[in-house]
Amino acid sequence: MRPIKTLLSWSSGKDCAWALHQLRKQSEIEVIGLLTSFSRNSGAVAMHGTSRELVNAQADALNLPLWEVELPWPCTNMEYEKLMGGAFAKAIESGITHLAFGDLFLEDVRNYRIKTLEGTGLTPLFPIWCEEKGTKSLASEMIDAGFGTRIICIDPKQLDRKFLGREFDHQLLKDLPSGVDPCGENGEFHTFCHSGPIFEKAIALQNEGIEERDGFCFMNVQIEKYSNLNQIDSSFIFHDFSNNPRWNSCFVKLIYNALRKKSAYDHDKTNPHVEDRIHFLFLNIAQVFEP
Asked: Against a cut of 0.85, is the pTM above it?
């Protein structure tokens, strides 16, 4: 049986990342690429405000091609559907039959997706669809699986701007006010996923300040200068003994053991995802010692 060639709607946040994680568990599905729309005016993902550089970094770390759609600003619904229609036609020509979305429980959004794809030849998929009351456990599951996510956009009418730039972790879930969906599905906040089991390498980030536009607050997030560990000169780190394999080996073991202790401290030792998370972090650190 041939795999179902699927394109994934990609906004750069945790939900689409989780959708990819679930799709990759299904042997009958082959995710071909990431479909992302950018504002022609700002060069950023609509609503999330994620820069093209960050999304390209995600695509590179996921080893998937990025299918870009340029949208004018402002953009009417008619213009949007016309431009997306061009991407759909290209997908069909490439042998793609399905388009997956990371929607959770908003019926009106789901119905709009289905209606938009009618007659295009593409079948919609909703791999992480759930009930509204299930988003709290879903959020915890994402965190426990080792996904690293940061809040980069907030609707100040629904959530205090103090949450901007925070990591999406268990403490954040505890701090969210009642009435705010734990996954931000009602538009309370949007995220950027920078690490997790689906990524070949993590994307190190730094917060560069808050911007306000169009009624929303955005954290200007950028890639850290030395986010790629291969760019770091090991002699700078290890000085005179950098070329001593025994010293390097010992240093890696120390880091590895520290990560194990840190992970055990942050998470229940019985958590089955802890070892996967440690291994992922260890692989990133080990890049320093690659010849």
From this structure: no
